[in-house]
Amino acid sequence: MEFTTQHFIALAPLLITSATIIVVMLAIAWRRNHSQTFLLSVAGLNLALLSILPALKVAPLAVTPLLQIDSFACLYMALILVATLACVTLAHAYLGDGGTGYPGNREELYLLILMAAAGGLVLVSAQHLAGLFIGLELLSVPVYGLVAYAFFNKRSLEAGIKYMVLSAAGSAFLLFGMALLYADAGSLSFNGIGQALAATGLPSSLAQLGLGMMLIGLAFKLSLVPFHLWTPDVYEGAPAPVAAFLATASKVAVFAVMVRLFQISPAASSGVLSNVLTIIAIASILFGNLLALTQSNLKRLLGYSSIAHFGYLLIALVASKGLAVEAIGVYLVTYVITSLGAFGVITLMSSPYKGRDADALYEYRGLFWRRPYLTAVLTVMMLSLAGIPLTAGFIGKFYIIATGVESHQWWLVGSLVLGSAIGVFYYLRVMVTLYLIEPNLRRVDAQLHWEQRAGGVMLLAIAVLAFFLGLYPQPLLNLVQQSGLAG
Predict the structure, then answer these.
(1) Of 121, 150, 316, 404, which sits 20 to 30 A from 158 (CA to CA)?
(2) What is the pTM assigned to this prediction?
(3) Closest CA to 308 of 419, 425, 212
C-alpha cells in the first residue's frame, strides 16, 4: 500500500512514542542519568500528546489493514498518554535521587513504561485481530518487568511471577478464541467478522465459543470476576507508580478494544454472550465491593475497588446502544483521574529503599496533621470513587445508570446501586482514618525534594480537575460525544 503524508500524521502519536523509546534507550546506553531519562520520557510523551491534534484532522483513516485511526482511537490514545505521563512523574518522585534513592538501576523503569504505553496505543487503534494481539502483548510483556521492578522485595517478585504466569494463560485463551472466530468468519478484520456474523443472523455456536474465549482473555486483563484472583496481590506487590499504570493506562487500552470488538456487530452482543456479560458484571460489582470491605491495605482495597468499577463499565457494554459508548468514555476518564490521584498519594508516601510501600491503612492514621495537602487529595479521590455528587466520579456513575435505565437492564442497575452503597462504607472508612488524632502527634509537614514537589503539584492539579469536572462536566461530555464510534 502507498504511504502518504496523511498516514504519517495519523500514526504520529505511535511513531513519536516509539522514537522516544529508542532515544531513551540510546541515552541510557550512553550514560546513566536518572533526571535526563525522566526529562526525555516526559518530552516524548508530551510531543506524542500534542500530535493527536493533527491526527484528528486526518481521521478517520485506515492506516494499514491492522490499524484504524479515528476520533474514538484518538480519545483513548490521549487518555493513555496522559495516564503514562502522570505515572512517569510519580515514578521519578518514587525512585528518588542521590544516596537515598532506589538501590538498583532506575532508568529502565521509564523504558518499560514507554514500551507498555506504545502497546496501549496500538491496542486502541486496532481494527484487526492481529493488531489486537500485537498491541496486547506489547502492553503486557513490559508490565511483567515493571511489577517485579522492586526486585529486593519478595512481594514484588512474587507479584511479577503471578502476573506473568496468569497473563500467559489469558493470552492462550485469547489466541484460541481468535482461531475459532477465524474458522467461522473466514476473516481476521473486525469489519469482516462483523459482516460474517451479521449475515447469518445469530452467530453460530463456533463463533459464540470463539467470542467467549476471547472474552475470557480480555476479562483476565481487566480483572473481572472470576478472573480477578491476581489483582490484589499484584497491586500490593507492584511499586506504587506501576500499580497506578496497571490500574489506568493498561485497563483503559483493553476496555477500549473490547468496546470496538462488541460494537462491530450487534450479533456479538446478543444471545448467550450478553447473558454471560451480565453475570460477570453483577459478580464483579458485588465481589469487588464485598472483598474491599475486609481490607486493611490501601493498595489491595483499590485493587478490589477497580474490579467493581470495571463491573460498572460492563453495564454500558451490555446495553451497547443509545448512550453506551458515551457513558464508557465519560466513566473511563473520571476513573483514570481518580485512580491516578489515589495511587499518587501512596507513591508520595512511599519510597522503595524502605523495603515496602506505605500502603497499610494504619500508616495513614492522622495523616491530615502531618501531610495536609496529600490528605486533601486523597479525600477528594475517595469521594470521587464513591460517586459522591460534585466530584468527577458522580458524573461517570450517573451516565452508567442512565445507560442501564435506558436499555431496561434492571438487574444490572440494582447491583450497581447496591455495590455503590457498600463502596461508600469502605471509602469513608479510609477518609475517617486520615483525620484521626493520634496521641503525642508531631504536627510537622515532611521535607520534600523537588521531584516530590513536582509529583505533589500534579496531584493537586488532579484533585482540582476531579472537582471541576464534577461541577462543570460539559467540556468532558463534548469531548466524548465527538469521539463516538461513528466518528
Answers:
(1) 121
(2) 0.93
(3) 419
- CA–CA separation, 25 and 347 (whole Å): 25
DSSP-derived secondary structure for 443-487: --PPP--HHHHHHHHHHHHHHHHHHHHHH--HHHHHHHHHTSTT-
Half-sphere exposure of 132 (CA within 13 A, CB side): 23
- Give the three cell numbers for residue 226: 472470576
111, β-bridge pairs: none
> 402-423: string of b/e by CB count within 10 Å (b at 16+)?
bbbeebebeebbebbeebbebb
Contact of 247 with 115, CB cutoff 8 Å: no
Residue 224 has pLDDT above 60, yes or no: yes
Q: pLDDT digits over 52-82, tens only?
A: 999 888 878 888 888 989 888 999 999 999 9
What is the spatial distance between Cα 407 and Cα 410, in angstroms, rounded to a whole number?
9
pLDDT band at 453 (very low <50, low <70, confident <90, very high): confident
Amino acid in the structure at residue 147: V
389, amino acid identity? P
Neighbour count for residue 109 (Cβ, 10 Å): 28
Reduced to 3 states (helix: H, G, I; strand: E, B; else coil), residue 416 is helix
- What residue spans of 294-391 are helical by DSSP H? 298-319, 324-349, 367-370, 372-386
What are the residue boundaries of the structural domains of the chain, listed by start? 5-482
Place of cell 529502565: 108
For residue 460, give the C-alpha cell. Answer: 493537586
Peptide bond into 226 cis (omega under 30): yes
- What would the pLDDT profile of 14-59 be if each residue is shown by its tens digit? 999 999 999 999 999 998 888 899 999 999 999 999 999 998 888 7
Cα first-last separation, the chain: 24
